[in-house]
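In response to a reviewer's request, we include the raw inputs and outputs for one of the modeled complexes. The two entities were modeled together in a single run.
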Amino acid sequence: DAGVIQSPRHEVTEMGQEVTLRCKPISGHDYLFWYRQTMMRGLELLIYFNNNVPIDDSGMPEDRFSAKMPNASFSTLKIQPSEPRDSAVYFCASSLGKSQHFGDGTRLSIL
Amino acid sequence: AQSVSQHNHHVILSEAASLELGCNYSYGGTVNLFWYVQYPGQHLQLLLKYFSGDPLVKGIKGFEAEFIKSKFSFNLRKPSVQWSDTAEYFCAVNSAGGFKTIFGAGTRLFVKA
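The model returned the following structure tokens for the whole complex.
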């Protein structure tokens, strides 16, 4: 079975540019989570969806971050404008029950 | 507020040594507990989970964890580690009625061959 698929795997861009991260959850899973992982702050939950509806976005750091889930098989996390402190690994995870399945992550570097 | 505390940030062991990683959580209700592992350069994978029942949970690769409700703890153990266990280990908790999962800061385990 295909797992959670994230793209791109790596992204390097200059500050001020718009960044879009993509996630395809496991088919049939009804929850989708976006996390950010940094050395300083560990693994932080940014936002999660249930049946494509955002349930809790309290972890989104600021208005520069936005997330959408237009359908059950696709979600995006957008940063506009990007800043160097946004550099991190961003993970998407999906679940049907309580155990989450993680994607391989997107390693984002903002120069 | 919910929180998860992992006592050790870094652990270094020799092969065949026994492992115990501490995890304490703070939450006032019924919880589900998890241990995830992240091998170098890879994504998080579920090692084991506790929802209810026998507080001693066995997971993959010889790992086990014990839920002690009175101590709000869910420590991870393995009797004999291998070099391939080198990874970062995360304890996590969510409420029995919800899906928002809180992760601990992680413990980096390095096993010397």
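As requested, we also summarize the result in words. The CA atoms of residues 52 and 100 of chain B lie 18 Å apart. The longest strand of chain B covers residues 87-95.
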